[in-house]
Amino acid sequence: MKDSRPNVLLIHGHDLGRYLGCYDVDIDTPRIDALADEGALFDRHFATAPQCSPSRGSLMTGRFPHVNGLMGLAHGNWELHDDERILPQYLSDAGYETHLFGLQHITQDTDRLEYDHVHSEGNLYPGVSPSVHQANRARNVASVVASFFEKSAYAAPFFASIGFFECHRVEEKNGRFGFDADYYQGDEPESVRPLPYLPDRRGIRQDLAEMHGMVYAVDDAVGTILDALAATGIDEETLVIFTTEHGIAFPRAKGTCYDAGIETALVIRYPGVVDAGRRYDDLVSNIDVLPTVLDLVNVDDSAAIDGRSVAALIADDAGEYDKRDQIFAEMTWHDVYNPIRAIRTDRYKYIRNFWHLPTVYLPTDIFASESGREVREADGVPSRQYEELYDLRDAPQEDDNVVYEPRYQDVRRDLSRQLYGWMDETEDPLLDGPVVPGDYGEILSWPHDNS
């Protein structure tokens, strides 16, 4: 490990999952791929939740959503508990100057985050309107970051959180949700590779082709930022992390605890410390990012963190690596109440559903999309089974629920015990019954007629 503390850039995309060339997707993302070649890439990095705010809350606190309190969307009256600490606060206490660029979406009160400098407007609510969130588009965020470096508007060491709007869907004039094809240059539907967990249908191909334009925008923005960083001459002393918060905005992905919903990218570059060009297939959760950063910058202040550092896996002289046997994921509130808890091991995925909902939940932006229209009849009708078990060796797309097959009963019982043990250990409020929404007090205050 280096003696001096590095600067830290945390770059994060929206609704992007692992839809990148370096994750063997048929799309050109040369700048992110190059970053991966210069650092460590994690093939099995998963989010704690398949939705924005809860997953981002875990990234920034190192704690599960039901532990830190952010169990729904930040603009939906959900907030971190008052005593929760987030990454910029840990680093600020260690002497870092902290900066926020673009999207954050873990609170509507930016002051709560205690950044020293907030450089972009409109970073509270990702929304769906293409006209409202220009400041959060990747090109614009990258331009602000590049100007920041060009003007040497920082004091070392510094931490910068850099968030992009892409690849969130936007509401179009026809009421459908797409990828703003008038703004981004995508690809032709015939040229895209279909998603392995969805049928190969016209509407899904059209959506994918349009989304490519947003992915290209993210890749270009990452390149702009890295070029600006290199021009300062401080890239060798800067820890760069690129990650995403959950799977892409397609059916059976975003809003579900299937792998496609919780899969996330994670690339870590730190010249001279992190071995370059390595790929790791260890199970890693996004609650592990915060303790990893603290380890790599030599800050020891993580007693209350649920995550485990992977610094010892990717860097020399970083202590003993505590390998995971499983990761946990959850969902509680999105645009409806949708309580799910899940456990994933190397071979199996066990999902416990706690509410009566359709076979596959489709968030509003996906339900009202071309892709959603293609699968509504099959997936958007009641009812789902309360338990799901998938043998990922035989059914990697999680399309064969074997929870009631006799030969899997020992696995079912074991994973169920582990899942409920985790819920009990972390004092999951779901064990006490349905979890009320963040604005429940306001709902109770609504006027009503007793006549």
Automatic annotation (TrEMBL):
Coiled coil (residue ranges): none
Superkingdom of the organism of origin: Archaea
Protein name in UniProt: Sulfatase
Family indicated by similarity: Belongs to the sulfatase family.
Residue ranges of domain Sulfatase N-terminal in the record: 6-298
Gene Ontology MF term list: arylsulfatase activity
Keyword Hydrolase in record: yes
Protein keywords: Hydrolase, Plasmid
CDD domains found in the cross-reference section: SGSH
Taxonomy of the source species: Archaea, Methanobacteriati, Methanobacteriota, Stenosarchaea group, Halobacteria
PANTHER family, per the entry: ARYLSULFATASE FAMILY MEMBER, ENDO-4-O-SULFATASE
